[in-house]
Design a protein that fits this description.
Layout: E1 3-8, E2 11-18, E3 21-27, E4 33-38, E5 46-50, E6 53-57, E7 65-66, E8 76-87, E9 90-97, E10 101-105, E11 113-114, E12 137-143, E13 151-156, E14 159-163, E15 181-187, E16 190-198, E17 209-212, E18 220-221, E19 231-238, E20 241-250, H1 253-257, E21 264-269, E22 275-276, E23 290-294, E24 297-305, E25 308-313, E26 320-321, E27 337-340
Antiparallel strand pairs: 1-2, 1-27, 2-3, 4-5, 5-6, 6-7, 8-9, 9-10, 10-11, 12-13, 13-14, 15-16, 16-17, 17-18, 19-20, 20-21, 21-22, 23-24, 24-25, 25-26
C-alpha cells in the first residue's frame, strides 16, 4: 500500500491507500507546506518546511514538534537530508530560508548551524525573486549520493552554488549557468551530474533545461523540443536509468501559476529531443504538475495537480487518474510538493 504526501497552501496533506480505498489526513493546518524530507534511516521521522517554521515528527505524523531552534527566519523554503553523511549515527539535515540562508543539523533538528559563507558570495547582490524583487530564497538543496562533503543549492532567483568541503568554502554561480532553477537533482548512477529544470526558459527558450557533468562548474543546455513550453518547474529521474527523465512545463510563469493556466509534461530519453507526454492529464486550468516515482514500480510515475493524482507506466501513452474522491476545495489550489512512499 502507498502513501501520498502533499504540500498545500494551508496544510500538509497525507493520503493513505488501504484495501477499502483512500483515507485523507491533514496535519499542520494553517501553514503553507513548502517541502518534505523523510529520513532514510527512519521513515517515521519526517521534516516539513513551512512558512511558520520547520516541523518534525518521529512517528509518521502522530505528534509534531517545531524543530527550528537557532534558525533566524521563520519561512523555511527547503529541507533535505544527506543520503551519505552521518554524524553520531544521525542523518545530516539541511534547511533553506527566505531571505536566502542555509543551515544544517547533526542531531535530528534539535540544533542548527548556519553556512554563513553563502552570504559572502559575489552574486548575492543580484539575487531577486521576480514576484517580490526585494527578496530571494533557497529553492532546492541537493546533497550528493556518494560524496558526503558535496552539496548544491539553487537560489530563486539568482544562482546555483555548490560546496565540495561541506560548507567551509562555496563556489558561486558560473557565467553560463542557469539562475532560476526550480528543481535541481542528481542520480546515484552518475553522482557528478546535476540536472536543472529552469524558469530561465521563459525569457530564453534555449535555457529551459541544463545539465552539468562536473557538479556545477560548467553547464550544457539541452532544450530541444521544449520551444512551445520552455518554463520548467518540477522534474523526476527514473530510479534505475539516469538518462530517462520527466519535467512539468508551461509556456511562462503566468501560464503556470495564474489564470488562464496551462501546464503539461515532457519526457526525455538519452540524447533524444524532449517529447510532450501528457495525454490523459488535465492541461487547461492545471497548475504545474508535481511528479513522483512509483515506489513499487521503477517503470511507473505519478503526477499531482489541482485536479487529482494521475499515473503513467513507462510503456504507456496515456496517464490514468487515480480513483480517489478529490475534494472540491483542492481544484483551485496549487500544490507545493509531492512525494509517494
Amino acid at each position: 500500500m502507498k502513501t501520498f504526501y502533499m504540500g498545500m497552501k494551508d496544510q500538509f496533506l497525507v493520503i493513505d491507500e488501504t484495501k477499502e480505498g483512500y483515507t485523507f489526513t491533514t496535519y499542520l493546518e494553517g501553514m503553507k507546506a513548502n517541502r518534505l524530507a523523510i529520513d532514510p534511516q527512519n521513515e517515521k521521522r519526517m521534516y516539513v518546511a513551512t512558512d511558520k517554521g520547520l516541523w518534525r515528527t518521529e512517528d509518521a505524523g502522530e505528534k509534531w514538534t517545531q524543530a527550528d531552534k537557532g534558525i533566524k527566519k521563520s519561512n523555511i523554503t527547503a529541507v533535505a537530508i544527506h543520503p551519505k553523511r552521518r554524524v553520531n549515527g544521525n542523518s545530516v539535515v539541511y534547511v533553506g530560508t527566505e531571505p536566502s540562508a542555509l543551515y544544517y543539523s547533526e542531531d535530528n533538528g534539535k540544533s542548527w548551524t548556519e553556512f554563513s559563507g553563502i552570504q559572502e558570495l559575489p552574486s548575492k547582490s543580484e539575487w531577486s525573486f521576480p514576484p517580490r524583487p526585494e527578496t530571494h530564497y533557497v529553492r532546492w538543496i541537493t546533497p550528493n549520493y556518494t560524496d558526503e562533503n558535496y552539496i548544491a543549492v539553487s537560489i530563486e532567483a539568482g544562482a546555483v552554488i555548490h560546496t565540495t568541503d561541506h560548507g567551509k568554502t562555496w563556489n558561486d554561480r558560473t557565467a553560463e549557468g542557469p539562475i532560476d532553477v526550480h528543481t535541481l537533482l542528481n542520480h546515484p548512477d552518475v553522482p557528478a551530474r546535476l540536472y536543472a529544470a529552469n524558469g530561465d526558459g521563459s525569457s530564453n527558450p534555449k535555457k529551459a533545461f541544463a545539465e552539468s557533468e562536473d557538479g556545477g562548474q560548467s553547464w550544457e543546455y539541452m532544450s530541444e523540443g521544449l520551444e512551445e513550453h520552455p518554463y520548467l518547474y518540477n522534474m523526476i529521474l527514473r530510479p534505475n536509468n539516469p538518462e530517462k527523465l520527466f519535467v512539468s512545463a508551461s509556456k511562462s510563469a503566468a501560464k503556470a501559476h495564474r489564470s488562464p493556466r496551462y501546464s503539461t509534461v515532457y519526457r526525455k530519453y538519452g540524447g533524444e529531443a524532449w517529447e510532450e507526454t501528457a495525454e490523459g492529464l488535465p492541461r487547461e486550468g492545471a497548475y504545474t504538475h508535481h511528479l513522483a516515482n512509483d515506489p513499487n514500480d521503477v517503470n511507473g510515475f505519478y503526477a499531482l495537480n489541482n485536479f487529482g493524482i494521475y499515473w503513467l507506466g513507462v510503456e504507456e501513452t496515456t496517464w490514468e487518474k487515480v480513483d480517489l474522491a478529490w475534494p472540491e476545495e483542492y481544484k483551485e489550489e496549487r500544490p507545493y510538493f509531492f512525494v509517494v512512499k
